[in-house]
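Could someone model 2'-deoxycytidine-5'-monophosphate with this protein?
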Amino acid sequence: MNKITIAIDGHSSCGKSTMAKDLAREIGYVYIDTGAMYRAVTLYCLQNGLITDEGIDTNELKKHMDKISITFLLNPVTGRPDTYLNGVCVEDKIRTLEVSGKVSYVAALDFVREAMVDLQRLMGEAKGVIMDGRDIGTVVFPNAELKIFVTASDEIRAKRRYDELTAKGEKCNMEDILANIRERDRIDSTRAVSPLRKADDAIILDNSNMSIAEQKEWLLAQYQRVTAG
Ligand code: DC
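Reply:
Sure, complex below.
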């Protein structure tokens, strides 16, 4: 059967990556978390003093772009890909509230997006890929055979992120997380370059009241429908 490209876009913390990873594992596709790539660039900025209280030193960051290498490596224990920044596994470091609080500003920079989109197209060149992000169906792979736009209520998304962070032992509170999610959605949807929007041919999935198992089943059915013909 010919392999297809699956684009999963949508709001922050609505479980896109969980459903995308599960489907990838089930059908033997490569999963690429493009949010992790923007998070890794943000972590690099924080580690190298390129983000201060005054903002991002964009001139300096431009000079550093070719020193930033982002790769994914399958973790044999979790069965899911981990993100590596310049050869170091940063899977946990890129998920902290510190990175979450800055990533939307980094992801709004045109030269950062150009570099990440080039890399994403290269990674998805051979098809058989599930990519999740904000602009996959609109910009990265506008010809993807299956496009999903995922959303859920703000409160439910905040609760899911809160549970995820507390499970990892990170101290956090609901109000901060809810504010961060709303602020990221605002910046992602209103930025000048590749704002978050549903592609005209994307199918909407509101998973506010769905379990992970139900989402998985729904997504698998969409994949089977598209590949059946
Ligand atoms: O999916 P996430 O929360 O890990 O994404 C982190 C940030 O990166 C989020 O603020 C939106 C941005 N992003 C983007 O602009 N384009 C993508 N393709 C993926 C993520």
